[in-house]
What we know:
- The complex is a heterodimer of chains A (495) and B (396).
- With 495 residues, chain A is α+β, with helices and mostly antiparallel strands.
- Chain A has helices spanning 8-12, 14-22, 34-37, 61-74, 126-133, 152-158, 165-168, 202-206, 240-252, 265-275, 295-311, 323-334, 336-343, 359-373, 401-418, 437-440, 443-456, 474-478, and strands spanning 30-31, 54-56, 77-81, 97-101, 108-112, 117-120, 138-139, 175-181, 187-191, 215-222, 224-225, 229-237, 259-264, 285-293, 316-319, 346-349, 352-353, 377-382, 387-394.
- Chain B is of the alpha+beta class.
- In chain B, α11 packs antiparallel against α12.
- The two termini of chain B are 21 Å apart.
- The chains are: A alpha+beta (495), B alpha+beta (396).
- At the A-B interface, β9, α8, α9, α11 and α17 of A face β1, α1, β8, α6 and β10 of B.
Amino acid sequence: xxxxxxxxxxxxxxxxxxxxxxxxxxxxxxxxxxxxxxxxxxxxxxxxxxxxxxxxxxxxxxxxxxxxxxxxxxxxxxxxxxxxxxxxxxxxxxxxxxxxxxxxxxxxxxxxxxxxxxxxxxxxxxxxxxxxxxxxxxxxxxxxxxxxxxxxxxxxxxxxxxxxxxxxxxxxxxxxxxxxxxxxxxxxxxxxxxxxxxxxxxxxxxxxxxxxxxxxxxxxxxxxxxxxxxxxxxxxxxxxxxxxxxxxxxxxxxxxxxxxxxxxxxxxxxxxxxxxxxxxxxxxxxxxxxxxxxxxxxxxxxxxxxxxxxxxxxxxxxxxxxxxxxxxxxxxxxxxxxxxxxxxxxxxxxxxxxxxxxxxxxxxxxxxxxxxxxxxxxxxxxxxxxxxxxxxxxxxxxxxxxxxxxxxxxxxxxxxxxxxxxxxxxxxxxxxxxxxxxxxxxxxxxxxxxxxxxxxxxxxxxxxxxxxxxxxxxxxxxxxxxxxxxxxxxxxxxx
Amino acid sequence: xxxxxxxxxxxxxxxxxxxxxxxxxxxxxxxxxxxxxxxxxxxxxxxxxxxxxxxxxxxxxxxxxxxxxxxxxxxxxxxxxxxxxxxxxxxxxxxxxxxxxxxxxxxxxxxxxxxxxxxxxxxxxxxxxxxxxxxxxxxxxxxxxxxxxxxxxxxxxxxxxxxxxxxxxxxxxxxxxxxxxxxxxxxxxxxxxxxxxxxxxxxxxxxxxxxxxxxxxxxxxxxxxxxxxxxxxxxxxxxxxxxxxxxxxxxxxxxxxxxxxxxxxxxxxxxxxxxxxxxxxxxxxxxxxxxxxxxxxxxxxxxxxxxxxxxxxxxxxxxxxxxxxxxxxxxxxxxxxxxxxxxxxxxxxxxxxxxxxxxxxxxxxxxxxxxxxxxxxxxxxxxxxxxxxxxxxxxx
Lengths: 495, 396
């Protein structure tokens, strides 16, 4: 993966840039020593490493505005960073760019139960929000698996999902407002404690924009009341087809479970070997279906799901009888990544979405690709919304294996697009899937996206090298290829 | 005035390209049911999109539907209902508000980012809008988003298009997320609460674990009688709605005895709330719709009532305030905008004569930095300002 060629002239100005930033924030909030810069060299996509020019840790919105205004005027690139848990390299530093770390924005500003929302700083962790409101029975719904560490600001940038998003939505469906700073230092407020945008939905645009459009400095999220009851079924199937049919029939029956997760045989065995929670070893696919809500509803739906599972050749079907048992059902799924990490020196987590009915052929193709690339793969799958997470097993110490793993992942994602799906369901494009974008979007599609970038950041200083395979200058993108008189006016009557 | 009626995307791109070359703006219409919404347009040409109609792909078990942007909503709703599904954001029809006769279309619903009472639980059109094809104001056909329910590939341009009132691109094809219809619903009705007390009842219900899908308060008059009415909706399988209705009625005992409406009368009540029916029928008055923090709703209505002769009702647990005020002068704009500024949120002059909608801002005026960004976004998609020029703001 090639990043834009670093600008040696900017790198040569490191001391001058550090001094300018130290005029804005306290000296210790600018990190420019070789050793300390290395702490920021990578995010959750650890195959890529690059120490930043330097890192700066602002404390206030005004700090952020002044830093960005300075960088805008001085032509210095900026990579915003929350906890650095991105799995797509969204926070990968640039040799000629600063890291803008928002870790000091870690306060919860306002918990407003009357309006069922909370106002927090972007460096608060996802789980931190729920921990702050659960005493009153509330929670913040999106629950990415990194929720103990990932920040809400990063969640906004990536439009993070989680296992419960089929029912409760992803980040964009649970946000009410943000305060943000543009690259030129202007501070904007979008939304608030009310619903829907005034004017263009720029809050919706910012969500999932991967740090390319602005820096979020405050976030207002919706709070939901925790369901009184949650129960789960653990169902084993003789084939991926029968599990897939079961999922389709549950949805067709009008049931939207709180969570619906599928694992294939390699993932089941890895998880069971690791956590020993009683997953059946003789099945080809395992489904966890969780129903949550009022007790009367959960009991009613559990029975309906069980009937559908039995009608689809379920080999085993357990229904949680206690909270401990429900958590045990989940323990294997939640430990799937480290479980795979146990049986392989390294693994690469892929993230694509497909129309659910294409699952059997996608899994068949994946087995063929596994042979072609001579690497094993285990699958966990957010079955309700068609979001696949193949885990490719490799050994980075074996020459060429990382490259083979990446090529395997790219083949999987191209196949996802070919069957009508998309390149990423929840991890983002970042640097990881940047060069695959043309598999899904043509040049005109991408130009329309990049023009939006130009409206926010015309000099392309914010997180360049991410999302778009080719960077165009905004002046070039803005040009209209139409000249007066050259196009015949279609003056036919067309009533 | 020319009325262009493109048959396909190529035709459409050609028309827009020509309009760009001539710098002559187009008004985009299909059903025409919401032409009275937004600032009145005076464009030399009309772009009639009715040919872009029809359901292209509907797979109930994938929860996804793709249709031409001009597909009439009744057609969409009938196809979904046949499979026990719906557009969960409960889009209003609003022919009763604007007096139109043409059916609303899916593209129009999305362009205006509409939502009904279920907004509080299930979101607005923007939350269900997965992807689209369109021709921008540059005369170029492009696509964005996808046809699956979970997707973060590239910028979420669907969010930008939802609520852009046709000012950025002419959408030709729409993919939306669909969801199962609830088997049953029950509405608890509390009688005789004043606005402040109704707010407390709604907040207590919304802060319970009973998963409300509607919370509205109709003061005397708007309620159709001389007593105020507070309505709380529960949806789901029968055993669930029965149990929740009973528990909620018990928990709200302090607010008086609740009447329970079964599915048919409940549906009728929420349809009326969705359509603004309690206030829309008096056509001598202008209509405002204000989105504010729910706890601020009653105070906003009270502040407006102190200054002008206003009638009001509340949806979204107090967060959506419908106001009907006399159309004289500024139609209540100064007092309503001041009250909204105090609470946070925004006000839209939903229905008013053309002259008034041309004279005062229809949508909430924006702070300078945001207004400048709005213009830059417009320029990115429609640099010659051909598409619905002036629908949202005078220069956009």
